[in-house]
Design goal:
Elements: H1 2-14, H2 22-39, H3 43-49, E1 50-57, E2 63-65, H4 66-74, E3 80-93, E4 96-109, E5 112-127, E6 130-140
Parallel strand pairs: 1-6
Antiparallel strand pairs: 1-2, 3-4, 4-5, 5-6
Length: 143
Amino acid sequence: MKMLLFSALLAVATVPVFAQSKDEQAVGAAVESLRKALIDPTKTNLDALVLDELTYGHSNGNIQDKAIFEEALLNKSSDFVTIDLTNQTIKVVGNTAWVRHILSATTNDGGKPGTTHLSVLLIWVKQKGQWRLLARQAVKVQS
């Protein structure tokens, strides 16, 4: 009996607990929707995720507004083939949330294959019950 109790306590103690609020879960789902939309963009899925006031900062210092951001994805001058997000942190403050993660991707920008490894900060705003992207800034991860 003692061994069974010890085993049960050990199992519970070794399971990491990451309690997330409903808003944090919803922001996480929005991030996942954005990840998928970056790989397979349509005007509809992008418009549903980003605000008209979007400012989208790249690791090279280039800043895009919503129209330029969407056009680059739709015309494949910015083409994500795969995206893997790791080390994600989400913090909700009222109707605003920030997300930090590491983005590792394979790309085919303008038909030129490549890879990228970035640290990304996303700012999301909740409007009419939906989380939408307001701002993004990326920096290259130093090896």
